[in-house]
Specification:
single chain; 439 residues; mainly beta; Collagenase (Catalytic Domain); Immunoglobulin-like; 3 domains; eight-stranded mixed beta sheet; 4 helices; 28 strands; 44% strand
């Protein structure tokens, strides 16, 4: 069995990094996109049942999630009609019975956006999906068959699917076709370019594969954040949150943790034995949407030696002030009035609902941001604008005089008064590369 790198849209090259390589241009999944959801075609590769293929695909993804220190997580989203195409940039999928060129066992394409991610001093494009297709010709075997007298020339489905998923995660080949490869660790890597029938030596990632994954994704770390006042992360400023590091990450490989609360306050560094890891308070004094970052420093040979890794929770905290509704009104003619919302927006998500109430009758309320309304007749009308969000709610009243004039049409004027009242809470809110495996 051989593996060969080809090209689609962009050249798929490789970079040497301690044995393992990145596909080129380098790409990786964003941790915020995990678990990576993938779909599986309804049929199966030759020589296997659908249930066998799906079970092995779960094991193949788990191989990468189980790499020591890896933050990768996967979830099978379901089955799909067999669609052997590399063009599905909208979803990650594994399909079968593809019409690949003769001798090709399987192929993988990764799709990526122009978003750039940094990790371990390297720059990656953000992966959005990968498509894997297995050829209709070769016969496959489960781990029970491969390496046994009953193999009969089959190829390891676990080894090949793990290999192709590795490409989807951003790994190139440990060694490529035609390259000298005297190092047995690289020759025995799952990401080695070739293999043999009835061979199960590469079913699981080895240390070279693990080093590549850790270089792309870093060491797994996580934290919890909650406001004691709301039991969540949305509330009214000033707002206090408590951050903590779960016990599973308070282990020997981590030496220190550094908090950045995203509001310009000083960074907070804690040693690995500091009791504040179980609960550190921070207060946000001003309205805003804040990103909390935890950087962990450590040393572990199985993770590649000394490391620095971070966990970022985007928009993890939303501290809101009460909304301040305001409006203007524009005559459109024929008793039609355009309502212009001039309320300050503040932090994104702090105002989640606007409601315009005509003449105190809530049955006439309009819930769009800037509605247009046709009055039945001339006269003076009261319009109440209610704005609400996590910081509470307020209302403002406006008197609109609508008149009819044969020359200029309808005139609307604000003679106006405004009032505000605090209320309750409402709810918040291709790059591509092709890798083919040959027999």
């Amino acid at each position: 069995m051989r593996l060969k790198a080809l090209t689609i849209l962009l050249p798929l090259l490789a970079v040497w990094l301690c044995g393992f390589k990145f596909i080129q241009p380098p790409r990786k999944w964003n941790e915020a996109d995990m678990p990576i959801e993938y779909y599986v075609g309804e049929d199966s590769p030759a020589g296997m049942t659908e249930d066998e293929a799906r079970e092995i695909l779960v094991d193949s993804h788990a191989n990468w999630a189980n790499v020591d220190c890896s933050p990768l997580r996967f979830e099978r989203a379901g089955t799909i009609p067999n669609e052997p195409t590399f063009g599905r940039s909208d979803r990650t999928q594994v399909t079968f019975q593809g019409n690949l060129e003769s001798g090709v066992l399987a192929a993988a394409v990764t799709h990526a956006s122009s978003n750039v991610l940094e990790q371990n001093g390297n720059t990656f494009f953000q992966t959005t999906a990968y498509n894997i297709i297995f050829n209709s010709g070769p016969a496959w075997g489960t781990p029970e068959y491969i390496g046994s007298p009953d193999c009969f020339g089959r190829y390891s489905y676990l080894s090949t699917s793990t290999h192709e998923i590795g490409h989807g995660l951003g790994l190139g080949h440990s060694c490529d076709d035609g390259e000298p490869c005297p190092d047995p660790i690289k020759r025995n890597a799952t990401m080695y370019w070739s293999g043999q029938r009835c061979e199960d030596d590469r079913d699981d990632p080895n240390e070279d594969d693990a080093a590549g994954i850790n270089s792309i994704y870093g060491v797994a770390v996580d934290f919890d954040v909650v406001s004691p006042e709301t039991s969540g992360t949305v509330g009214t400023a000033p707002m206090t949150v408590v951050v903590s590091v779960p016990d599973e990450f308070q282990i020997d490989r981590f030496l220190a943790f550094e908090w950045n609360f995203g509001d310009g306050s000083d960074l907070v560094m804690l040693d690995a034995d500091d009791p504040a890891l179980d609960g550190l308070e921070h207060t946000y004094t001003e309205e805003g949407q804040y990103t909390i970052t935890l950087t962990a420093f450590g040393d572990d040979e199985s993770c590649g030696g000394e490391f620095e890794t971070f966990k970022r929770q985007v928009g993890a905290v939303l501290a809101c002030s009460p909304p301040q509704p305001s409006a203007e009104f524009v005559n459109e003619g024929d008793f039609t009035v355009q309502m212009v919302n001039t309320s300050p927006l503040g932090a994104f998500g702090c105002t989640t609902e606007y409601e315009w109430i005509l003449d105190g009758d809530e049955s006439t309320s309009l819930s769009t941001y800037e509605p247009q309304y046709v009055f039945e007749s001339a006269g003076t009308h009261t319009i109440t604008l209610r704005a609400a969000g996590p910081g509470g709610e307020n209302t403002a009243d406006f008197e609109i005089t609508v008149t009819r004039n044969s020359d200029v049409g309808c005139n609307a004027s604000v003679t106006g008064r405004g009032s505000l009242g605090l209320g309750g809470l409402l709810a918040l809110l291709g790059l591509a590369g092709l890798v083919r495996r040959r027999s």
